[in-house]
C-alpha cells in the first residue's frame, strides 16, 4: 500500500517482509481483533470457493453422481436408505448442501468481484474525467450520476437485467445470466466511485505536482492516470470493499427474486430461494446453511471495509 | 428563488424525458412488437399494414413523441403476458402496494423517532446499547433474509401469522383494502415489519444523532438551569429541532420504500405492483416493465422536487448557496 512509513531502527536495514510487518498499516491491522477475525472468515470463505472442486466431497452438478435416494438427508446423520453421511445434509435431489454452498459461493464471489471491478473501472475513469477536464464533460457525467442516484441501485440493476434478458435470445439466457448480472450490478454501482474520485481529483488538480507535470508537457491522459490516480486511490479501495459486500447482497437478492443466477448455476441467493420452499416442511438445513454463509460473507467484508476506512483515513465526503 | 424553482422543475422534466426515452427504447429494441401481436400465419402485407397502423414507419422522434403522449395518458398498451391493458392491471395492484408502504412507513416513522429519543436520552443505559447493537445487525441483514426469518418464526414455528398473500380484502369503489378484515390486518403485519425495519433503524440513528447534538446546545443547558422538567426539555425544546432533517430524509425514503417493496412483495407473495414488476422481468413483459418504470420515476422525481422545495423553504441558509453555484 502507499502508506508504508517505516520505523527504521539504527543498525541493519530490516528485510522487506519485516518492514511491511512493522508498517502503520499492518500495525493497525494486527491490533484490531475485529479486522483480524473478519479477514480470517473472508479468507476461509474465499479459499473454500476457489478450491471448491478439490474440497467439495461431491460434485453437485454432475447428474451421474447424484442419487435421488439421498434426498432430504438431515445434516450429520446417515441416510436411511443408502447409509451415506453428509456434513450439512442434502436437498430434495440428493445434492450435498456443503458442496452446493462451496460452488454457490464461487458464483456469488465471482459476480460480486467482477461487478465491483466493472463499477470501479467505469466510476474511476468517469470521475477522473469529470474532475480533471471539467466543463461540459463534467456536467454531463455528473448529471447522469445524479439521475441514477435518484433510483435505488437494486431497482436499476433489476431494470438492466430485464432489458438484457429481453435482448438475449431465449436459448442463451441461462448461460448469459451470470454476465448479465455482472453488467447489471456493475452499472448500478459506478456512481459512488465517480463522485468520490471527482471530488478528490478537484482537490489534487490544483496541487503543485500536477502543475509541474503540465509544465513539462505531459498529456492530460498521462497526468490523470500516472499522477492523479495514485493519489485518489485510497478512498476508492474503501468504497470497493464496502461495494463488494453490497454487490454480493444485491446478487443474492436478485437471484432470490428469480431474476439472477439460474438454478443450473446456483449462487447463494438461488440456494436460499430453493431452500425457502422446504422451510415449511421442516427441512431447515437446506435454507439455514446457505443463508448463514451469505451473512458471514457480507458481514465480514463489511467489517473489513469499516476497519480499512479508519486505517487509510481517506477524505471520504 | 423563482429562478431556482424553474431550474429545478426543468431538471425534473429532463429526467422524466430521459426515463421516457429508456422506456420507449425498451419497446423499440427489445423484441419486435409485430412479432408479439401477429401470430405464426402472417403475410408481408399484414406486417406492412400493422407497421403503418402502429406508426412504426414514422421517424424515431415522431414515434417517441407519440409514446410520451400515450404514456402521459396512462396508456402503455397490452401486457404481453396477460393480454389486458397495462394501466388496468397496475390500478388493480396499486392499492396493495400503497397500503403496505403506508403502514411500514408509519411504523418506521413512529418507531424510529421513539427509539431514537429513547437511545439519545438514555445514552449510557444498557437497554439503549442493546437497541443500538440490534440496529447495526438490522442494517447488515438483507431484506429478503429478514422476511424469511420472520416467516420462519411467526408462521412456521409459532403459527400466529400468515406467510403469504393479503388475506381477505374489502372492495370500496376501485380500491381494495385489507384494513377492514381481521385476516387482512394479520397478513399485513409481517410484510410491513420486513419493509419498515430498515427505514426504522435509519430514522432511529438519525434522530439519535440529531438529538445528542441538540441536547449539547446552550439553550438546553439554560432551560435546565431555569429548572424546567426533563420531560419538557426533551420533548418541547429538543425534539422539535431534530424533526426538520427527519422529515426530509423520510420524504426521500418514500421512494426507496416503494422500490424495496419489490423484494418484500416477492417474499410474501403480496399482490402489489412490485410483484407484478418482478414477474414482468421474469417473463420479459416489456409494457409492464415500461409502465412500472414510468410510474416509479414520476413518484421519485415528484418527491425529490417537493423535498427540495421544502428544504429550501425551511432553511434560509441554503438559498444563498444554491442560487449561485450548482449543487
Query: What's the order of the H and E elements of chain B?
Result: HHHHHHHEEHHHHHH
Shape of chain A: globular
| Greatest contact between two chains | A-B, 32 and 38 residues
Widest beta sheet: strand line-up of chain B: 1-2
Major sheet size, sense and barrel closure of chain B: 2 strands, antiparallel
Q: What is the count of DSSP helices of chain A, taking H or I runs of 4+ residues?
A: 14
> Count of helices of chain B?
13
Architecture (CATH level 2) name of chain A? Orthogonal Bundle
Radius of gyration of chain B: 25 Å
**What is the fold-level CATH name, i.e. the topology of chain A?**
MetI-like fold
| Protein structure class of chain A | mainly alpha
What oligomerization state is this entry in? heterodimer
Share of residues in strands of chain B: under 5%
CATH class of the domain at 92-272 in chain B: Mainly Alpha
The topology string of helices and strands of chain A comes to: HHHHHHHHHHHHHH
Query: What coarse outline of chain B follows from CA principal-axis ratios?
Result: globular
Care to count the β-strands of chain A? 0
Task: Note the topology.
The complex is a heterodimer of chains A (317) and B (327).
Chain A: H1 16-22, H2 24-30, H3 33-50, H4 52-55, H5 97-133, H6 135-150, H7 153-167, H8 173-188, H9 190-204, H10 208-215, H11 220-231, H12 233-256, H13 268-277, H14 285-312
Chain B: H1 2-29, H2 33-37, H3 44-54, H4 60-72, H5 86-121, H6 126-140, H7 143-157, E1 170-172, E2 175-177, H8 182-215, H9 218-225, H10 230-267, H11 273-282, H12 286-314, H13 317-324
Antiparallel strand pairs in B: 1-2
Helix pairs in contact in B: 1-4, 1-12, 5-6, 5-8, 5-10, 6-8, 7-8, 7-10, 8-10, 10-11, 10-12, 11-12
Amino acid at each position: 500500500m502507499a502508506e508504508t512509513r517505516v520505523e527504521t531502527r539504527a543498525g541493519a536495514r530490516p528485510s522487506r517482509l519485516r518492514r511491511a510487518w512493522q508498517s502503520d498499516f499492518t500495525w493497525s491491522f494486527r491490533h484490531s481483533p475485529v479486522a483480524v477475525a473478519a479477514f480470517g472468515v473472508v479468507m476461509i470463505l474465499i479459499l473454500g470457493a476457489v478450491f471448491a472442486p478439490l474440497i467439495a466431497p461431491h460434485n453437485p452438478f454432475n447428474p451421474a453422481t447424484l442419487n435421488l435416494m439421498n434426498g432430504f438427508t438431515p445434516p450429520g446423520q446417515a441416510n436411511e436408505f443408502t447409509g451415506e453421511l453428509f456434513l450439512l445434509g442434502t436437498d430434495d435431489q440428493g445434492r450435498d448442501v456443503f458442496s452446493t454452498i462451496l460452488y454457490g459461493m464461487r458464483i456469488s464471489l465471482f459476480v460480486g468481484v467482477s461487478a465491483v471491478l466493472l463499477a470501479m473501472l467505469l466510476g474511476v475513469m468517469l470521475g477522473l474525467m469529470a474532475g480533471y477536464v471539467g466543463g461540459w464533460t463534467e456536467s454531463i457525467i455528473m448529471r447522469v450520476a445524479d439521475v441514477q442516484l435518484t433510483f435505488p441501485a437494486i431497482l436499476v440493476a433489476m431494470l438492466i437485467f430485464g432489458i438484457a434478458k429481453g435482448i438475449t435470445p431465449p436459448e442463451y439466457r441461462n448461460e448469459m445470466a451470470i454476465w448479465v448480472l455482472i453488467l447489471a450490478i456493475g452499472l448500478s454501482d459506478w456512481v459512488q466511485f465517480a463522485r468520490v474520485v471527482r471530488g478528490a481529483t478537484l482537490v489534487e488538480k490544483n496541487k503543485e505536482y500536477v502543475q509541474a507535470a503540465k509544465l513539462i508537457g505531459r498529456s492530460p491522459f498521462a497526468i490523470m492516470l500516472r499522477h492523479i490516480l495514485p493519489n485518489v486511490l485510497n478512498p476508492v479501495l474503501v468504497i470497493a470493499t464496502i461495494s463488494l459486500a453490497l454487490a454480493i447482497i444485491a446478487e443474492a437478492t436478485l437471484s432470490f427474486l428469480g431474476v439472477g443466477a439460474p438454478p443450473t448455476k446456483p449462487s447463494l441467493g438461488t440456494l436460499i430461494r430453493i431452500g425457502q420452499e422446504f422451510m415449511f416442511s421442516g427441512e431447515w438445513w437446506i435454507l439455514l446453511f446457505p443463508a448463514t454463509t451469505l451473512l458471514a460473507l457480507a458481514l465480514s467484508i463489511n467489517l473489513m471495509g469499516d476497519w480499512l476506512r479508519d486505517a487509510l483515513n481517506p477524505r471520504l465526503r | 428563488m423563482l429562478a431556482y424553482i424553474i431550474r429545478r422543475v426543468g431538471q425534473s422534466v429532463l429526467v422524466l424525458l430521459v426515463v421516457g426515452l429508456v422506456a420507449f427504447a425498451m419497446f423499440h429494441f427489445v423484441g419486435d412488437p409485430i412479432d408479439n401481436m401477429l401470430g405464426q400465419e402472417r403475410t408481408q402485407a399484414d406486417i406492412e399494414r400493422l407497421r403503418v397502423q402502429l406508426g412504426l414507419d414514422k421517424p424515431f422522434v415522431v414515434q417517441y413523441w407519440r409514446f410520451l403522449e400515450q404514456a402521459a395518458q396512462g396508456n402503455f398498451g397490452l401486457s404481453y403476458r396477460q393480454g389486458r391493458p397495462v394501466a388496468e392491471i397496475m390500478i388493480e395492484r396499486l392499492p396493495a402496494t400503497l397500503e403496505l408502504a403506508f403502514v411500514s412507513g408509519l411504523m418506521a416513522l413512529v418507531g424510529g423517532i421513539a427509539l431514537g429519543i429513547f437511545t439519545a436520552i438514555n445514552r449510557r443505559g444498557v437497554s439503549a446499547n442493546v437497541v443500538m447493537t440490534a440496529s447495526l445487525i438490522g442494517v447488515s441483514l438483507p431484506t429478503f433474509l429478514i422476511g424469511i426469518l420472520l416467516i420462519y418464526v411467526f408462521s412456521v414455528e409459532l403459527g400466529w401469522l400468515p406467510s403469504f398473500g393479503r388475506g381477505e380484502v374489502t372492495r370500496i369503489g376501485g380500491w381494495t383494502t385489507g384494513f377492514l378484515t381481521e385476516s387482512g390486518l394479520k397478513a399485513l403485519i409481517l410484510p410491513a415489519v420486513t419493509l419498515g425495519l430498515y427505514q426504522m433503524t435509519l430514522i432511529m440513528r438519525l434522530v439519535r444523532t440529531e438529538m445528542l447534538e441538540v441536547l449539547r446546545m446552550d439553550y438546553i443547558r439554560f432551560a435546565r438551569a431555569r429548572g424546567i422538567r426533563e420531560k419538557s426539555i426533551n420533548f418541547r425544546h429538543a425534539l422539535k429541532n431534530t424533526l426538520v432533517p427527519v422529515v426530509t430524509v423520510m420524504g426521500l425514503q418514500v421512494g426507496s420504500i416503494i422500490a424495496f417493496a419489490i423484494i418484500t412483495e416477492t417474499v410474501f407473495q403480496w399482490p402489489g405492483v412490485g410483484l407484478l414488476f418482478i414477474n414482468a422481468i421474469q417473463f420479459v413483459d416489456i409494457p409492464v416493465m415500461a409502465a412500472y418504470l414510468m410510474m416509479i420515476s414520476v413518484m421519485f422525481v415528484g418527491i425529490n422536487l417537493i423535498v427540495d422545495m421544502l428544504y429550501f423553504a425551511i432553511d434560509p441558509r441554503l438559498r444563498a448557496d444554491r442560487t449561485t453555484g450548482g449543487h
